[in-house]
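From the pipeline queue, job 12 of 40. The input is one protein chain; the requested action is below.

Action: predict structure.
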Amino acid sequence: PEADRQQVEQEKTRLRLLKQIPASGFGLNNIISDLTFLSFLQYFGDDKARVDSKTGYGISPNYFEVIVDRDPRFLYSYIFLSTSSSIYAGQPGRATELMGKAVKFLSPEQMPYAYTVWRRKGVDELLFLGDVKASLASHLKGAEWAERAKIKGPDLNFGPTGLPEADTIATRLRGTAEFLRNSLDSKDKEKVAKILKEPESPLGATFCRMPLTKNARDCHYRAE
């Protein structure tokens, strides 16, 4: 256990040093980002250290701070940002802040699946921060980006061009936004809160309601 705790402290120091590298990254920002993501996967996947040794997942957002700074267009990495930082590390504020920073560098015309960052941001804002207005804005922005992604162009992360299901996704996201808008106007706040706690909410998200344990990964988190 002590060795695991020392390793976490070493990782904290290493990540702080990476953040101090000049913004240019000496032309190696993509490599720095890739290696940081690989280090994150090792850290996040080490159940023995995280759970058995009780070191937790607290520095998960630190990895993504480096990734967002060095290669904000590394879209694939954001699949892990919400789950690791909001759920496992219990730091949804940092997760949504990082996603908000990342979207400034993304383009749905070049990266059709960029809308997913807005969607994940909106889900975290609602489920973990209780910020309905921010979640509403994020879902509307996600819908807008999904529609813009219909334009054919190179997908810098996933290969296929365009977003064939754009209309369906945009409709679904706007439906969620409408639900949130109605909840803001609803006088029956308890009813709204109850709906959001259902295993299958109007968000299309299945979320974990059990405490983080060794078997926490049996709880699946997704946002359709």
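Job complete. Residues 106-224 form one domain.
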